Amino acid sequence: MKSKRYKKLPINTKEMQSVSLNNILSQIKTNCTTKFDESIDLSFRINNKQKKSEINLRTVVNMPGGTGKSVKVAVVCEDTKYEEAKNVNADIVGGDELIEKIKNGDLNFEKLICTPSMMIKLSKLGKVLGPKGLMPNPKLGTVTNDIAKAVNEAKAGQVEIRNDKDGNIGLSIGKKSFEDEKLIKNYNAVIESLEKEKSNLTIKGDLVKQVFITSSMGVSYKIKMDKSL
């Protein structure tokens, strides 16, 4: 059952013509009628001519406008790198003892970074970390010897882009409280990242069929893209 609040929002917005991001942000924010600072979310509808198994996109994008979220970062590394991790405000730092905690289900973090030499041990915990999307990955910059860079990027506003089982992509570009300029910068960063990833995929035609934008508790609108992707 739809709430009284929701019933006051615009209806049939998905049937409207697509509009540019610049022209719809004010309406999206107007639709944020809850008491909390709603997220501004994107949903990319992937070209359905592809088979599900043909699209396996996973990368990260650094949001220049930030995400408005505080990320708890854990680092698995050699003891010689503990100080480096702590100096850049990693929330949890450890070696074998941390791996053992993770093995026992202690996943009190949202991002996990690991050095290559420790990854040999951590990789055995795929059944624990994999389903949560926490397994470090060289492609995502989370398996690295440059601990400082990885932690700083995770803390500054790094977001993972990953298609779901149906091939579609969903992610947040910020909060209602963000200035429009920050939201637009984050959106452009996502588009640029997808453009780079498209070149690594073997697909027929465009990668993205449609893009929708909404707030956490709002209604969605189609975004008009400046160019095909």
Keywords:
Rossmann fold; 229 residues; Ribulose 1,5 Bisphosphate Carboxylase/Oxygenase; 4-stranded antiparallel beta sheet; alpha/beta
Helix content: 25-40%
Helix-strand string: HHEEEHEHEHHHEEHEE
User: On the 0-100 scale, what is the average pLDDT?
Assistant: 89
Examine the secondary-structure arrangement and name the CATH architecture of the largest domain. Answer: 2-Layer Sandwich
What form results from the Cα inertia axes?
globular
* Share of β-strand residues: 15-25%
CATH superfamily of the largest domain: Ribosomal protein L1/L10, rRNA-binding domain
The biggest sheet, with number of strands, parallel, antiparallel or mixed sense and barrel status, is:
4 strands, antiparallel
- Overall number of structural domains: 2
| Total number of helices | 8
Give the strand tally: 9
Rg measurement, Å: 20 Å
State the strand order across the main sheet.
7-1-8-9
Class computed from helices, strands and strand pairing: alpha/beta
In the CATH scheme, what's the topology name of the largest domain? Answer: Ribulose 1,5 Bisphosphate Carboxylase/Oxygenase
- N-to-C terminal Cα separation, in Å? 37 Å
What is the CATH C level class of the largest domain, in words?
A: Alpha Beta
Low-pLDDT stretches are none
